[in-house]
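Running co-folding for zinc ion.
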Amino acid sequence: MKIRAAAMRTAAGMVCVGLVWWAQLPGQAAPEDGKRWYKGNLHTHTTHSDGDSTAMEVAAWYKGNRYQFLVLTDHNYLTEVEGLNQAHAAQERFLLIPGEEVTDSHKGKPVHVNGVALSKLVMPAGGATLEATIQGNVSAIAAAGGLPSVNHPNFVWAFGSKELLQIQGASLFEVYNGHPGVNNEGGGGYESLDEMWDALLTAGKRWHGIAVDDAHHFKALGKQYSNPGRGWVMVRAGRLEAGAITAAIRTGDFYSSTGVELVSVETIAGGMRLEIKPANPLKYRTHFIGKGGQVLKTVTDLKAEYAFTGGDGYVRARVEASNGDKAWTQPVWK
Ligand SMILES: [Zn+2]
Ligand SMILES: [Zn+2]
């Protein structure tokens, strides 16, 4: 990684940086379409709301830990990122994309919807019902030019697929959130976030799943804190620029991870395939998941492929490492 860091410091331009980046992944061909992977976190707090560190400190953490982009999403606060981007000499090194966690509630149930690449501050919309509250905030974010993302449904067991199925104009939700209080796995009759996703996909709703930190604590570290580095997205884009990154997320050209790195993930004629970048001594299991959350195929090799058979609606992959780390690909539709 030293070579790459040095090359990036020369600011020698995208092509050079891209070549160096790809040269470091053994066995991996250079991207023919000029696109590469960018690592980013879409959900983070600062002292502008309930985080313990300033926007500058938070950006420095992510940049120092080899992320390429970051969305600061404080509660009902839109951080001005222009100055931060200038401070970090952003071009092809590190990019801040404006964001906000629009923070609302209905009868004690939190309704938090992130707006990515917002053009202006969005105030909570409220609503007569839980569904109307989610919808109102999704619509307000879209109206402000942002990409809406529905956050941590199981936080305070607020809502599930029943409510999400009624939402229009959103196609992004958190399949993993690193905050200790958000109940990703469900239980006690509540769906896991993976189960919610499959309920949406099974109904034909083409939603994408992101993994995020929801980091608040950069100074105190431990399981009980919401620390950075737990969940991220790897976005395939032609350049490190807000429009290109947001467009790739919007179309599902990314995967989500809590530690598993993929060399490639591709839609192929009649299915999908992926390749895992191994980290010793870990072993891997790839589940291809379809309608109703059914596991269609499980592969234990580093290269895994699924071909549609009759009747499939979608397939997505969840890669599980032997240490509990995961990666989630976006669904491919037949
Ligand atoms: Zn939240
Ligand atoms: Zn948050």
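Result summary
Residues 1-30 have pLDDT under 50 and may be disordered.
The domain at 35-258 is CATH 3.20.20.140 (TIM Barrel).
Job closed.
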